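Researcher: Here's the sequence for the chain we discussed earlier.
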Amino acid sequence: MEHLTDFERDQLIEVVNIGAGNASTALSQMVEKKITIHVPDVFVDRVERVPQFFGETEKIMTVVLLKLLGDAPGIMLLMFPPESALKLAGLLTKQHKKNIKVLDELDRSALREVGNILSGASMTALSKFLDLNVLQSVPDAATDMLGSVVDTVLAEIGKESDIVLVFKVNFSIEGEDIDGQLFFLFDPKATAKILEATNKVVGRK
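Model: Thanks. This is the structure I predict for it:
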């Protein structure tokens, strides 16, 4: 599978919207701020073409990574520019980060917990909607060049297939100048399961 029909794309966007909406609600409750999420973007192509979907590979980003396990295995990435990551960590830990340039262990722990909660919230919503069993690994957090992070993730998915499906959701925290991106990456086998489950749900409506 290297291409999606318009109908399949619309179905997948609807599914991701459900998961992203659940995740934004969870984050809003954590930071006690309004979260704005944008319409998900969908990309399916060969592994070597995927990095362009992530943006400038030389940019430094703070990334929280989780593996998705079960019926639809894949990878979730929660990404922030370092400045946004510091501001979010400050909101979560109730500490001012204005004069701090580097995340400490408390900050990274807080961001890992954000990734854990957002992944759990989105996957719980998708699992219920699609009747699939999806679990998640323990999150990891790092600040690195975007290209290095993406290459590592794609090498993992590339072990199973040379085609990858990527969902991207942009979000922001109102009044805090914090912007982030939520990515979900799946190989064709997981994508086929998601599409099949989606078709069943649509057929019941």
